[in-house]
User: Fold these one by one.
Assistant:
Number 1:
Amino acid sequence: MTKSIPTSRGRFLGSGMRRRDCGLGAAPAPQSENARRGRGRPKLMSDKQQAAAIARQARDLFLENGYTRTSMEDIAARCHISKRTLYRLFPNKTEVFGSIIDDHRQSMLALPGDYDELPIEEAIGRIFLIDIDEEAHRKRMELVHLAIVEAHQFPELEALLHERGGDKSRAALAEWLEGQARRGRVDIEDADATAKTLMDMMFGAIVMDRGKGPQRPGGDDRRIRLRHAIRIFVNGVRRR
């Protein structure tokens, strides 16, 4: 009779599941004969992928506890990684926040993108994501308001918001507007100034949307205001 051999499969699976839940790893697969002869473990994620996963977890921590009360140790613990790994990818907490801003920028301004075949009004609406659902809008605004509050206390965060948030967004929008001008779709003199004006109009309505009293279900008030702002802008830059 062949005797069964006890294994520690349950223990290893348990460890793997904790890493997978954080998005920083996966449950280890059964070892092949070649794998048992090899040295070391294969890298599960690239540094770029791991940094992005860490930033997503850190974003939740910042929203739960605030920037001040979240430490690098807290981030490492949430992600089930060592502090050494965390500091290898991010030298400090400010850089973690900067990575979050990089990721968040796409939720505020969908550029680069191909909108050349759309009417200008519709293209701008898509770039500024005015038709996202209320849950997606709520999530993007949570981080915006956190950043605004925390930037008053931490000048380095305010600098990050400008450099990796507003400045990059404005440059991307100015580049798109220049492209539309070359195609004869709009008439503008200064693409950068025009981009800033459009962002002021749109983000003014988006960022100040919270806490302004009751709205109709489905965020209709916000969308109506944004579409009205787009019509005013397009009428001002339309080639005549």
Note: The CA atoms of residues 35 and 41 lie 9 Å apart.
Number 2:
Amino acid sequence: MIPARTWLAFGRGALAFGVLLFGSAGTLAWPAAWAYLALFLGGSLLITWTLARHDPALLEERMKPLIQKDQPVWDRIILSLLAVLWVAWLILMGLDAIRFGWSRMPAWLQWTGAAGVATSEYLWYRIVRENTFLAGVVRIQTERSHRVVSTGPYAVVRHPLYSSAILFFFATPLMLGSWWGLAGAVALSALIIVRTALEDLELQRRLEGYAGYTHRVRYRLVPRPW
């Protein structure tokens, strides 16, 4: 059963999404945005329900604030920048795709974006089922006997959640029909790449067994490139 406060947080997030997208668009007549919200929020609800049923400890961990006392300063800065950029990005896509109509994107690319969003949702589902230590902030969870996870997606790359997030960032503006949104996706992805590098160093220094894991799984985000 999903806790009441999780429902409240989910509802606030869904409302914020809708207000930012449709408010910046200036209309509710945006079918792509309705489809996007249904796909994204539906997938998020499925993942939340799965965690509530199979891994309530991880759900509790991910419900904690994104700024915590035992979190590195650099992670606080990056998460704050991501939050600000995320809001600006959603507003930009509403202005671009609908209110001012700066972009004109072919339907097949929007369908490609929808497939990308769905794929990223599926990957998130696989990842949270595999890694019970997938906190929202960078920290060693000693109270939960934090250990290295090297199975499933983690046998391919060391940070599959960030890989899927980057896919999501680029798929979203395609689905919503915003070329300018791709610029925001580049900026968001750049922050994720910086966070990946810093988190990887933190884990190598502080998580037992992680240094050996980096020798077995060489790539952080994408096999071969990095």
Note: The radius of gyration is 18 Å.
